[in-house]
Amino acid sequence: MRLLIVEDERRLALSLARGLTAEGYAVDVVHDGLEGLHRASDGGYDLLILDIMLPGMNGYRVCGALRAAGNDVPILMLTAKDGEYDEAEGLDTGADDYLTKPFSYVVLTARIKALLRRRGRGGGASPRLTVGDLVVETAARRVFSAEREIALTAKEFAVLEQLAIRAGDVVSKAQILEHVWDFAYDGDPNIIEVYISALRRKLGAHYIETVRGAGYRLVAPR
Predict the structure, then answer these.
(1) Which residues are CB-contacts of 177 (< 8 A; sequence separation ≥ 6)?
(2) Is the pTM of this model over 0.85?
């Protein structure tokens, strides 16, 4: 899952990004409303964390512009304002949820997971993906093989999730990098091979096929 944080408090934004990256999300951060609107308009994000008081363009206007353009990305608004009229204005412009600073990180992650589950039920990826005896529970972030739970790291799960969403289709390294690592990642794309090898060891090599020159494919064992 790719998240975009639009927050001008740099220490808060980077702290959130570190925490959410550790949870297995790919996270991009911008500190200006106009840049946030530009990034979000390009698509590819599963959720937007949007501050209200921003330079360039405030969060209300960013949210309103996205909704007017037909962009239905889930939006969680963050603000230091705590009045009911501020909350109403945020929701009226199209935000899906609203969190007042200071907030608990545990509450933030719970709200994010709830919004992503809601989006899944609305027609996105199913929260439960099945490929043969392999079951990937995207909301609970749990994996089972023949009813035995498999322990995966956050990044291993995120890579497997991208394969499971497109089960049977070839998924390129570029597609995995785009959704599992952040926008600014400029490291070796062969890092994907490390995680594919780890998944094969834990799940069984027969689940993941290599399509030479193209990518990887998750399949049900024959």
Answers:
(1) 185, 189, 192
(2) no
- The dihedral over CA atoms of 138, 140, 141, 145, expressed in degrees to the nearest 10, equals -90
Q: How far apart are CA 74 and CA 216, in angstroms?
A: 29
Distance CA 150, CA 144 (A): 6
pLDDT tens figures, 4-63 = 999 999 999 999 998 998 888 889 999 999 999 999 998 789 999 999 989 999 999 999
Q: Report the alpha-carbon distance of residue 106 to residue 95 in Å, rounded.
A: 20
Q: What are phi and psi of 76, to 5 degrees?
A: -110, 115
The H or E element that residue 3 is part of is strand 2-6
SS3 content of the chain, % helix, strand, coil (to 5): 40, 20, 35
Query: What is the chain's length?
Result: 222
Contacts of 13 (CB under 8 A, 6+ apart): 5, 7, 29, 31
